[in-house]
Amino acid sequence: MRILSLSTQNEPCGIGDVNAALQIAMQEQGHVYDVHRVTAEMRAAVSLAPYEAYLKAVETYDATLIQHEFGFFGPTHRRSMRNFSALISKIEAIGKPMLTVLHTNIPQKPANRPLRWGSESQKTRRAIKSFIRAMNRLALARFVVHGEASRAAMIRNGLDPGRIIRIHLPMRDPRPLPLAGRGPDDRVTLGIFGFIADYKGYRNALEAMLFLPERFHLRIVGSRHPKNVNDLTLNRILGMVHTGRWTDRPLEAPADTRLRERVTLTGFVPDVAAALADVDIVLAPYTEHHPAGSAALSTSLSHGKPVIASATSSFVEVGNDGDCLKLVALNAPFELAKAIEDLATDHGEMSRLSAAALDFSRRNSWDSCARTFVEALQAGPHAGPRPSWFGLRRSLSL
């Protein structure tokens, strides 16, 4: 099969790395899998003009696979949804099967808060409904989500369940890294991996470090995302390392040196495996439920590293299916510190988590993912219910 993917490529981006792994699996199975790169013009698009070259190229392939993140299709959520709706309608008109991998869940309405007419939240909800209607109208479109929580969220928003393919974020072939045998007084190195963003829980990790013995050290591996240059999370991390307080203005805070010698920021590293080799326990203390998955977590599991993660909906599913994570409550630094100290002194549990992580990686490989995607692209038009005008519904089989 000849497939054209739309994705980031050759830039620091987790989704681009994911697509590169999928490309290798597709090619090993004998398929053509080319990449049309997401450009800066596409990210800033207010119309479909920057996508014309991609649409022209789609005509020469059997199918297309889109790696979806809202920032790829416009400068705001609403504009992104409008652009994406128009784009997949164009692909339908060309007559090509399409598969869209959704890497971020659709934003949800805050609980117990009514939407005011004309408010930004109300406008976003209207845009989401239009976005879902466009997805449901297309016979050749199917959508991939990571985990049951993401699937349920899309169904609540109105997406036809028959269009949804649920997977875990696939893993590379297991490549176990050795576990260090630590004595009760030996140094223990913790690690957080990936682009720096507030929802990944750096504050939780740093606050937990304040309650851990001095033999525990934290390594923050990654840099600020190049497309999010105004994010202040890195500044807050540096502020807390030097003052012990999570603040945008560290010079105004009293000095607290407890973290200065125990926290290291490496910046971007090209060889993640080498960085993982120096880490005893990986942390994923996320503060929000909305990320659909974590490429950094998948990489850690594929190397057999013990992982402590927040109990987000997606991580709970991984934990339930693979029994390969130690889970703690969201935004609970005291509980996180206790979990770290307990795991570091339980070598049997460290070994069990490592073995379970490698087994989970084998069961969720890129090879099986590629086969699933090809089957979906070859399945033909979706015959489920589609919305028609005035809220009535009709079936393609009629």
Portion in strands: 15-25%
What distance separates the N and C termini? 30 Å
The CATH C-level name of the largest domain is Alpha Beta
Rough outline: globular
Largest sheet: 6 strands, parallel
The CATH architecture classification of the largest domain is 3-Layer(aba) Sandwich
**Low-confidence region ranges:** 388-398
Overall structural domain count: 2
Helix and strand pattern: EHEHHEHEHEHEEHEHEHEHEHEHHHEE
Overall radius of gyration: 22 Å
Class based on secondary structure composition and strand pairing: alpha/beta
Average predicted confidence as pLDDT: 87
Q: What spatial order of strands do you see in the largest sheet?
A: 2-1-3-4-5-6
Q: Could you say what the CATH topology of the largest domain is called?
A: Rossmann fold
Query: How many individual helices?
Result: 14
User: Percent range for helical residues?
Assistant: 25-40%
Structure summary, number of beta strands: 14
